[in-house]
Sequence to fold (360 residues):
Amino acid sequence: MSNPSATTKVVVTGRINAGFLERNFEGKQLAKVSKKTASIQYRYVKTEDLFTGFDLQDVLVDILRRSSGADDPALSTSVRLRKKDLDQDGSFFVLNQMSNEATWDGPVFCGQIIHVKKGVEIPGINGTVDQDIPSLKLANFSVGKENSIVDGILYFAIAGNHVGLIEGQKARGRSLERFLTSMLQDAEELEPGEAILLPAKIQGKLPEIRSMKLLPKRSAAQSASNRTKQRSLAEAKGNGATVFEVLELLGWNHEEIGALSESVPEGGWIEGAFNVLFKHGKSRAAINRKAIEEAVRNLDNSSIGLVGNGSEKGGHMKLSEPRSIECTSDMLNPDAAMQAIVKVMKKWAQLGHIDCDFNK
Fold:
């Protein structure tokens, strides 16, 4: 692929708020359901730039069974040794819960990545909104030095070089790539400059792509440097890259994105529609699907449309499947989430969607 060009359109709109109360046919309020629908996505390891015979599951399991030093326990037994300061901001991505070690040499390894922020202050009020007083006093409440906030949770299953995952706010597919890259580099399993990339398998029949249409999530009006730090897990809606992130991909720097964000009225947002063309010299060119699978791996399904000798609209692009998963305290149950990923991956293998052997 050479010299892709892009035309962009940015629209500023106002916010529309809507709410609803779910009721049954008798008009009574329904009880909270103890399940949530989560999207299980498929990724695969890009092995072209890695050593011959690379197997992500085998390498990761081997690292977890090692000790990082003579006086240290194995990584599998110490969460302290499985934390990574990927953002260099005092927060940590941690490989937290894992499948039973007795199964690690079998067909699949499962895990949970959490993003942890320590000693965070949260804005709140003293008292309740039911008081007959002129106004409420705002205050910052500290979580405390001995407690931490979980800002995102990701679940994954690795079978050889096949990966299934459920993304969470601030713990995305890109987070898993960076975490695995850091772990393997620290263990000297990757050479300098090598990285773990997890492209998404794009369904469809177009062998070559001539252009892409991207409709990423809208971006709230906040500075580029703070746009992820200011969002909590409770505020997360949907998955996929935002308009700001696509603008960064197209070469906008943080100052330019910050200036654009500051021009938006309070309560507004940025929406963008992007048409990406592929050219060779002055002529239109086409690129292979594999290159697209890597490029759009962190975009939401419904954000993508492909044009070649025909077209494929968004919504059915990347191999994924929604599943209803049991919850514990409004969060996905870890065991249920990991089991759901494995079950869906086995289904894809049986249908021939992925070439994965679960009889290991």
Summary: The CA atoms of residues 216 and 243 lie 6 Å apart. The chain has six helices and 20 strands. Residues 5-14+32-351 form one domain. The two ends are 38 Å apart (CA to CA).
